Sequence to fold (318 residues):
Amino acid sequence: MHHFSIAISLALGASVIAHPGGHHLSAREVVRRSELGLKCRDKVAHYHERRWHDDTTSYQIQTKAPYFETIQNDTCVLTPEVTQGPYVYPQSQTLRQDMTENQPGVPLWLDIGVLDMATCEPLEDVLVDLWHCNATGSYSSFTDLSPDTAFLTLLEELGIDIDDFEIGVTDLHTDDSTFLRGMWPTDKNGMMEMKTVFPGFYIDRAIHIHVQVHTNWTLRENGTIVAGNTVSTGQLYFNETLEERIMALEPYASHTQTDRTTNAEDSVFPYDSTGGFSPLVDVIPVDGEDVTKGMIGYITLGVDTTAIEDGDNYVGTL
Ligand SMILES: *[C@@H]1O[C@H](CO)[C@@H](O)[C@H](O)[C@H]1NC(C)=O
Ligand SMILES: *[C@@H]1O[C@H](CO)[C@@H](O)[C@H](O)[C@H]1NC(C)=O
Ligand SMILES: *[C@@H]1O[C@H](CO)[C@@H](O)[C@H](O)[C@H]1NC(C)=O
Ligand SMILES: *[C@@H]1O[C@H](CO)[C@@H](O)[C@H](O)[C@H]1NC(C)=O
Ligand SMILES: *[C@@H]1O[C@H](CO)[C@@H](O)[C@H](O)[C@H]1NC(C)=O
Fold:
């Protein structure tokens, strides 16, 4: 039943879900994490400052400071235990800083800061693992699954009984493509950057980017992950107004086969927002003016390194 409810949550609206995530946080645990996050607020603000004002750091993209007049202190994602979804596929997630692979779309440089919630200090050398769908809703490695077919219908078409479906166990992959999947470790400031394109959407889900954070990780020769402790599983979202602007552009605009689900309508979004924290990525235009020409996104992930997740994911069990 546990896994059944996850599948339902992906396929249907929020009204029918009892448990949206792969892991069930008790109310007490949510409160504990929220308190950890509040404790870190001032430190979070400090790291934002350092990230954007320190000219001695060498990031791919140099940006100007003004952006930080609007940044929120409370950008930690503190309820990471939302579902990783059915499209996790570690075999195609490789170590790289540009996961675009010629997929068309608005360029996005995603900057992620990882903070240890126990100490409010940046976490160095943890692997940030990202994957999302392309501008018209398809995931690499799953390109034969239609982004416009409801999940339950997809399972039916594949001849998989819903009762037999388990997130992270049932393998739905259709090919070996790797676009829009990548991982990169954090530096000494707890920062990493991934170049990608702004995601599109697929049926019944708001626009989102999946993220996991792994500690104690090791890689295969081809750069895919062999093992690691997953200490965070979350989904990142964008501001609705921004999404409307980007979705009006090609190639996003040509995806008319299904309606876009907004954050407000999404079944998983509310659980990423638990505890008053925001899973929304802050963005600034790369050219300082026009986000449709490309943008830099920033978010801080608050991670509890002792909360090692098991079950529910491939990592460590492959
Ligand atoms: C945000 O950070 C600034 C600068 O450190 C601090 O003055 C302010 O109190 C913080 N706000 C909250 C809500 O914690
Ligand atoms: C990497 O190697 C593993 C193990 O041989 C394999 O399963 C996976 O498909 C490979 N991935 C890529 C992207 O080459
Ligand atoms: C997204 O990926 C699918 C599957 O590979 C492909 O058919 C589609 O053209 C891609 N979308 C865009 C905008 O390139
Ligand atoms: C880290 O990984 C190694 C080997 O993969 C394992 O022996 C060790 O117990 C792990 N350490 C922790 C803290 O999980
Ligand atoms: C989204 O962006 C608009 C325009 O910048 C802003 O008015 C609105 O408050 C933002 N919404 C959220 C949830 O941050």
